[in-house]
Design brief:
Oligomer: single chain
Strand order of the largest sheet: 1-2
Shape: elongated
Radius of gyration: 28 Å
CATH architecture of the largest domain: Orthogonal Bundle
Low-confidence stretches: 6-12, 23-30
Number of strands: 2
Helix content: 55-70%
Order of helices and strands: HHHHHHHHEHHEHH
Number of domains: 2
Length: 227
Amino acid sequence: MPPKRKASTSTAQATKRARQPRKSAAKSKSQTDPVKLCEEWFDRYKDSDIQDQAIISPDGCQSFFSDIHVELDSVYPILLGYKMNASRMEWIHGMRELGVDSPEKLQSLLPKLNHEIINDPVSFKKMYLFAFGFAKTTNQKSMDIDMAMAMWQLLLDDPKYNHVNAFIQFLQEQRPAKVINKDQWTSLLDFCTAVPENLDNYDSTSSWPVLFDDYVEWRLKKRAGSS
């Protein structure tokens, strides 16, 4: 019988590799599965004091915005709150809807997302209405007047919302209210789109909140005084 030959180096290496345990499919999948990546991303900010850990804590929110380089006094926290909120399920759904699974991807997407929303009247109105609940104090039905004015300056900073600056001036000078309720908040956006800056088609018998009647009266008096 002829002597056995030693296995070639390449054959030996192939045999060695074949005998080595393969990496688990689950681990490999976790590195590429978008849902898993979003879950792991969420877990960085979740509230460890909550038993089911299904929401992001206030400190977690600050860390999240810091990671994506977003200023807390910009429109982006409102935009992101509107898109996904702070619960685990809504976070994952929102991120998947946006097509992102990392801070870097989200950061690069924000300007485009903001542009799309502010140029879509339907989407913008939905975000504007969401902002009322987002900014008011929890368990309160109304928003503090100073907070409302700051939010209007942030959200309605566009010439097409031609009553905003005058309306804020009216609130600051006359102080007719200490809080803004949901009806008043909603009505300002509608007022800006329905009533021209010169107030020509304003109808005092229409269903605008009384605060807007007072605003128009103030505007007309100022106009008469300057003529």
